[in-house]
Every structure is written in C-alpha cells, then in structure tokens.
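Morning. Coffee machine broken again, so started the prediction first thing and wrote up yesterday's gels while waiting. Chain of 294 residues, entered below exactly as on the submission form.
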Amino acid sequence: MTNMKCISCNSEEYKIVYDGPIRAGSYGKLTSNNFKVVECEKCSLTRLEQFPEIHYENEEYRLDYNDTSDIHDYFNNHDHEQTPRINKIGIEKFRDKIVLDFGCGGGSFLDSIKGIAKKTIAVEPFVGYHDSLKSRGHEVYSDIKECAHLNSTVDIVISFGVIEHINEPLEYLISAFDVLKTNGKTYIETDNLDDILVKLKFKEFEPFYYRTVHSYYFNTKSLKELALKAGFNEVFVGHRHGFGISNTIKWLNERKPGGVSKLDFITPEIDFAWVQMLENNGMAELLHFELVKS
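Came back before lunch.
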C-alpha cells in the first residue's frame, strides 16, 4: 500500500475495505482497472488510495457524470433537491445573510434563497455555468483562493455534495472557516459511509457507491474530527435521507438502483417511518452537519 499519513490523525496505518472497479461516470460506467479504497485504522477516515486526475473546470466532467453540461438540464436534475435541504436548515436562517455556496454547480440552491439572502456568492470551477450564475445576480468565483478578500465577512457557507470530491478536504474546511464571520455557520452534506446500503455490503452496490470523483468517504466520527481540526468550535451532527424504502428493496431484489420510483404496496406512512429510522440511527444516505465558528 502507498505510504501516506492520514490528514486527520497522522496515522500511517490503513486497511483495504474495497479493491475493484469503481464508477467512472453516470450509472453503468465503470473503470477498466481496479481501485483500492482504504480506511484509516485510527480515525476511520476513508479514501481512494490513489486519486485519479479530475478536471472539474472542464466540460468533460459534467458530460461523464451528468451526461450533459447544459444549465437547463442542471436545473431539471437538481432544482428538486433544494426543498428538503432548505426544510432541514430552515429558510429563516438565510434572512439578510451573506451566503457563499462552495461548489455550487449551476446554482440551484442559491437561486432558492436569492430573494431572502442579503448577498449570494457562487464558487464553481466549471466556467460553463458562470455567465448564467452572474445573470441571475450571484457574485461568481472559480476557486475559493480568489475569495481572500471575503475572509471574516460571510455569514453562511453552504457545501452540498462537494467535500467528497476534494483531494485535500481539511484545507477545504479551513477555507470555509476563514471566510466566515465570528458565529458564522457552515452547512455541509456528504455521502454517509454508514448508509444502510453500504452496511449491507453486497457486491453490486460497492462499485456503484465508490467512484473516481469521490476522493474521500466520511462517517459521523471522521467528518466531525476533521471539522474540529479545521478550527470549528461546535459541530452539530445530523443525517438526511432522500429515498423511500422502495429503493432499498429494489437494490436488494434487482441489484441496481431504484431511484425515487415506488413499489405499489409501499404507503407514505411506511416511507416516513423508514426515513425517520435511518436518520435517527445514523444510517441515512447523507451526513448533514452544522459547523460553527465561534
């Protein structure tokens, strides 16, 4: 195994948790070679042993993983995701606030709070979205390194589905910390390594879950420890699950994703209980953290 130190605890002791092909784009696209996924034996922070070279600023990334780079397709694919996110946080948290979305994609979340926030700032490497973001009234940057003049001025940093893509997630969290005012907050969502489907450990799910563009994989413990190391004084741990029980049943039965389609015999009451159980027991698909700079 490659000799490396854990960025969180500095341990050099890793164990291999997966060795095989991983997703290299949208569903069905797999690597031709095997990748090792390794877990730190001390703090459980998990990563690809070797990071492939990914160019998020180029159109090819969007074409590989979304099959399109068109801004309107982005809206169609992601607008619906914003309502549960806002419900989880509370729309009132954004009233008259300066909000920076760190890895905003086409800006669906920023659009959803534009009328209530004082100012919306988009940080997005793919320049193909920049003109559209600017036309909708967002201040736009390609990289957080361009935002040094914003240090200690931002009320809220949003990071949804981004930190897992970063080769240096500790530096990413430090950058978020630096732009925040005192008592500012970062809301972060990322895939949960304790997701019920991961814990079931069946062979067809692993090459779907692990992917070339996800350098790191987090559970509650590893993300909390990394956030504290980045300087955040308070870490509030939460979870969010966006799929009903039908998706899990279809994975177990058909060995492929079922998405949001529902089995006829599943009632809303069953789905509600399923989601509540997973979120309350830490087995939801997403970690949802609130990090405070106090």
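The radius of gyration is 19 Å. Going to sketch it on the whiteboard this afternoon.
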